[in-house]
Amino acid sequence: MFSWFAKAVSSCLGPVRRYARMSNYDDVEEPSSPVEDPLLWCRDLEKHSCGEFSFAVVQANEVIEDHSQVEIGSDAIFVGVYDGHGGPEASRFISDHLFQHLMRIAQENGTISEEILRGAVSATEDGFLTLVRRSYMIKPLIASIGSCCLVGVIWKGTLYIANLGDSRAVIGSMGGSNKIIAEQLTGEHNASKEEVRQELRSLHPEDPQIVVMNRGTWRVKGIIQVSRSIGDAYLKRPQFSFDPSFPRFHLPQPITRPVLTAEPSLCSRVLQAQDRFLIFASDGLWEHMTNQEAAEIVYKNPRNGIARKLINTALKEAANKRKMKYKELQKVEKGDRRIYHDDITVIVVFIDHELLEKKVTVPELSIRGFIDTVGPSNFKSVQEFM
């Protein structure tokens, strides 16, 4: 069996967690410098079995729609970034269920693979659509709520990634002349990309309105930018189509088959000696910097607080675009802040290759971004593969 999945499902799936307000630093280590933005949450540096990681989230919406998690096992790390839209329910649901599905399916199959990740995503989608069906008569707008979903697992020296939507995973690797090279590991399922529009048109040749320019942006059915997601039931199941009383989500012609899909893009990579770190982030970060800019910031600065530094850099750029000072932006309250930037989640995972070859004991830890939940993970130490 394998070390961080097998016994987890047979134990209680609801870990006991302690609660701490990270931005106030109650019961947690204080980082090297204070957090001045009241909407910024962070865990500046924690350990995992083959390195360290840094985690930060900043809120912009009235109710934060980014949910995220890091799960640390004795020989593995799981990272999830869930960028919600229309509300927080879908991203919160993914945070509560996807990792559990991954453990269950991995135990049943005795391994981790791209197909195991696909199965966990599919089970999560099925679960959320069941919730929509049960809630639709009471809360019809739940059919319009969805989320992007980016997950990564490092296990036995291999990285596995599944992605739906436009969050992004980037790896920083050493190149010639001691320079860091950024490589994007995930494609974005966003109608702003020509290849995505071509894919949608080829899948829906009967529908000339499958992608429409609306408010200066290409959108699926003129409504939504992402083409793959968890949720968004009204664009997947005809029974959840809205009537004209919901003009924002009303389709002139009812759908007869899914317009969006929950099929993830998958990739795996054996980590090489030159690979130094991974950046997992929602699209709110990438609106303000390139892959290479982000990688150079990580490479040239101390690890402690590096996720927070990436967010602060993005916020400074957002302020500059509005010709305002960064400190003025920090005073803008949630809800109003969305005019200037999106919710942003950043998780930087450092890879220390000397630790990949060793049995390093680290605390099994579960962290949920921004919602003040920290505690023991569902990971359990068991025997290695037989």
TrEMBL record:
Segments forming domain PPM-type phosphatase: 52-351
Tagged with keyword Secreted: no
Reaction(s) catalysed by this chain's protein: O-phospho-L-seryl-[protein] + H2O = L-seryl-[protein] + phosphate; O-phospho-L-threonyl-[protein] + H2O = L-threonyl-[protein] + phosphate
Keywords on record: Hydrolase, Magnesium, Manganese, Metal-binding, Protein phosphatase
Keyword field contains Magnesium: yes
Cofactor(s) required, per the database record: Mn(2+); Mg(2+)
Record-annotated membrane-spanning stretches: none
PROSITE patterns in the record: PPM_1 (PS01032), PPM_2 (PS51746)
Molecular function via GO: metal ion binding; protein serine/threonine phosphatase activity
InterPro entries according to UniProt: PP2C (IPR015655), PP2C_BS (IPR000222), PPM-type-like_dom_sf (IPR036457), PPM-type_phosphatase-like_dom (IPR001932)
Domain of life per record: Eukaryota
Gene3D superfamilies: PPM-type phosphatase domain
EC number(s) on file: 3.1.3.16
Family classification: Belongs to the PP2C family.
Name assigned to this protein: protein-serine/threonine phosphatase
Species annotation: Canavalia gladiata
Lineage of source species: Eukaryota, Viridiplantae, Streptophyta, Embryophyta, Tracheophyta
